[in-house]
Design a protein that fits this description.
There is one protein chain. By secondary structure, the chain is mainly beta. It has two domains: about 5-105, OB fold (Dihydrolipoamide Acetyltransferase, E2P) (Beta Barrel), CATH 2.40.50; about 140-170, no CATH class. It contains two helices and ten strands. The protein has helices at about 65-70, 160-170, and strands at about 5-10, 20-30, 35, 45-55, 55-65, 75-85, 90-95, 100-105, 150, 155. Strands 1, 2, 3, 4, 5, 6, 7 and 8 form an eight-stranded mixed sheet that branches. The chain has a two-stranded antiparallel ribbon with strand order 9-10. A hairpin with a 6-residue loop joins strand 3 and strand 4 (about 45-55). The longest helix has 10 residues, at about 160-170.
Length: about 170
């Protein structure tokens, strides 16, 4: 599988399902950190939603564990190999384990608060419903021919034994 080409994007160009995104943004707000428990191994993690932006708009970035303390409000960062997804149908810019985040040399002076990409409702095309789909039940066919094995007495139940028994009594 080939790696997708890097995409240099602004906040307003972000869409769900983008991969290998390179973007520069300013951290404008960090929400309240909360503790969550991993479903896979039961470990505890800290998570918070940070609002980041540039001159084209703002978007939410979930920050986990150590990255909460590393990113400072008011600082500008460059993200390489980020990706986007949705949470409750709201767009999120995500920092993955293969992403690189570093403080930018150039500061972003103005952030456009009028365009909040995370307030718009987005449908992630990759999401699937895991509900079990009901299938129409197949009609069972009547037992034909030899019948079915009956393990309790080692014989067959059905037409075969009955017919042979009837013929052998003549």
């Amino acid at each position: 599988m080939t790696k997708p080409e890097p995409v240099d994007a602004t906040v307003s160009e972000l869409k769900p399902g983008m991969k290998n995104v390179n973007i520069r943004f300013k951290v404008v707000d960090k929400g309240e950190a909360r503790e969550v428990t991993s479903r896979s191994d039961g470990s505890k993690h800290r998570v918070l939603d940070a609002t980041v932006g540039d001159s084209t708009g703002t978007v939410v970035v979930p920050l986990w564990d150590d990255s909460i303390d590393e990113m400072k409000t008011g600082k500008t960062y460059e993200l390489e190999n980020g990706y986007t997804g949705t949470f409750h149908n709201q767009l999120r810019l995500k920092i993955g384990k293969y992403s690189e985040l570093e403080e930018a040399d150039e500061e972003i002076e103005e952030v456009n608060y009028d365009v909040n990409m995370s307030e718009e409702e987005h449908r992630d095309k990759r999401k699937r419903s895991y509900k079990k789909k009901s299938r129409p039940k197949k009609k069972k066919k009547k037992s034909e021919g030899y019948g079915r094995p009956n393990r309790s007495f080692g014989g067959y139940v059905g037409n075969y034994k009955r017919n042979n028994r009837a013929e052998s009594t003549d």
